[in-house]
Write a structure and sequence with these properties.
The protein is built from 12 helices and 10 strands.
Length: 326
């Protein structure tokens, strides 16, 4: 039985999954971060080594017995970045062969490298063709053809993009709160008293300047994004929906729809194109997700929006299986 591994790595953790050639799940194990722009390169390589060792400790499987594998990670896009990890896998395979005295099934040229967004796309659609829209802490839209060609829009971080993300929604909510406190206009209105009270309660503060600790002194992107659910709650308040929160979400939905329009225009010609949603914002805030879907469908009626099939590590497995068969 041929086995394949897929790794989905990010800035906080990674996950390795194993599948058979027929796509049957065998085992999975988790480990530390693999984004080389989020921690030191030597730490990333040690995390991967530990991941492979833990797989062998916790199961009867080994990546060295796999026919092929795919390593997908945040911060993995350029040829230089891929070459760095290719060299690591090559050295790791040679070391195992020296220690065991036998040839590994896994060969260096059977390890494929991919940005994590495309592994998420393959997992969500169950195939390496179509489109994916992600809105979590950040946001990105991407597309992929069967021949490996890819396109993307967004995904450049909170300073350059991330429109419609949890960070964007949370930050706009905090701005609306600060504007109300300062009696300054926000989007043509007076800001939001409801969001100001929500910010005080959520962060345990009593004035806006106390937000400086994670906005400026020790910037914490996740802490900003953690305010996004309160914007959704304010907009959905059954007694009196907050008009500022509603406006923030309308703009966020438009930003996400624009990401889809952009990638779709970059990759025409896919027969029966499909789009899946992923990320905490689109998967948890279902009313918002449907609102975004309607905006996309109005302009792209031929694009079928489908449910998510698998996770990203399984998507990396499927990508490896498809590439190995080619």
């Amino acid at each position: 039985m041929k086995t394949f591994f897929g790794i989905d790595g990010g800035g906080t953790h990674c996950r390795l999954s194993l599948m058979t050639e027929k796509g049957e799940a065998l085992f999975s194990v988790s480990g530390g971060p693999t984004n080389i722009y989020g921690c030191k390169k030597e730490t990333v390589l040690q995390n991967l080594t530990d991941l492979f060792n833990n797989l062998e400790k916790d199961s009867d499987y080994s990546v060295f017995d796999c026919s092929a594998g795919c390593f997908a990670s945040a911060g993995l896009e350029t040829d230089e970045e891929k070459a760095f990890f290719a060299d690591f896998f090559c050295r790791l395979i040679k070391k195992r062969e020296t220690e065991s005295g036998k040839k590994c099934v896994l060969r260096p040229d059977s390890v494929y490298f991919l940005n994590d967004a495309y592994a998420a796309l393959t997992g969500a659609l169950g195939k390496s063709q179509g489109f994916l829209l992600i809105s979590g802490t950040g946001s990105i839209a991407c597309g992929m053809q069967r021949d490996g060609r890819t396109v993307r829009a967004g995904g450049l971080g909170h300073f350059l993009s991330d429109g419609g993300s949890g960070f964007d929604i949370g930050l706009q909510g905090l701005r609306a709160a600060a504007c109300f406190a300062d009696k300054m206009p926000f989007c043509g209105g007076p800001g939001s008293e409801k969001l100001l009270h929500a910010a005080f309660s959520h962060y345990g503060i009593s004035n806006v300047r106390q937000l400086f600790s994670f906005l400026y002194t020790d910037f914490d992107k996740a802490k900003v994004a953690s305010f996004a659910p309160f914007v959704f709650d304010a907009a959905k308040d059954a007694s009196r929906p907050d008009p500022v929160a509603v406006q923030i979400l309308e703009r966020a939905a438009e930003s996400l729809a624009e990401l889809c329009f952009c990638v779709y225009s970059k990759m025409p010609g896919i027969l029966f194109p499909e789009l899946a949603f992923s990320g905490s914002i689109l998967e948890k805030e279902l009313d918002f997700s449907r609102f975004v879907a309607h905006k996309i469908a109005d302009r792209l009626p031929d694009l079928a929006i489908v449910g998510k099939k698998y996770g990203s590590s399984e998507g990396a497995c499927i990508y490896a299986i498809n590439r190995f068969k080619c």
